[in-house]
Amino acid sequence: ALRVLRVADHIHRASHRTLLDGQRLQVRAGVHTGTVVSGIIGKTMFASDVWGDAVNVASRMESTGVPGTTQVSAAVYELLKGHDLGFRPRGPVECKGKGKVQTYMAPVTAPADAGTARSPHAPGECNVVNVLAQFVEGALQA
After folding, report:
1. Contact (Cβ atoms closer than 8 angstroms) between residue 65 and residue 73
2. Active-site residue, from 28, 43, 88, 96
3. In terms of C-beta distances under 8 Å and separation of at least 24 residues, what long-range contacts does 41-49 make, across chains too?
4. pTM of the model as a whole
5. Where do runs of H (alpha helix) occur along the chain?
6. Catalytic site residue 60?
7. Looking at 17, 24, 43, 60, which residue is catalytic?
C-alpha cells in the first residue's frame, strides 16, 4: 500500500508540472486494499483485467475524491496509520453500492517547482507522453 501511495504521489507531481490551456493538471487517485481476481480476456486481441470488490471500492475512492489528491479507504488508513504519513480524515462519503464509507486524504508531496510550472508545448497542448515519462522516471527512483 505504501508503494501505491508513492506512485500516486509521483502522478500528482508529474501532472502538477504540466499545463493544459494555462491550467495545471489535477488528477484524482483512489486507493483501497483487498482481494482481487485477474485474468486474460479475448480471443484475438488479448487484454488483462482485474475484478473484485477491492477494485470497485478503489474506483469509488477515486470518483468521490478531490482533484489533486489521493483519497484512501479506512482499510488503507488502518494498514498504514503506524507509518505516520499525515493522513487527514475526510469523513464519510457516499459510495455507490456501499453506502457511507469513511475516507482519508493521503498527503501529496508538493513539487519543488510548484510556483514555476510551465509547458514545453504550444499553448493549449499537453504532451501526455512527457507526463507519463516523468511519472515513470520518478516511480523508478522511489
Report:
1. no
2. 96
3. none
4. 0.74
5. 2-16, 53-63, 74-80, 128-141
6. yes
7. 60
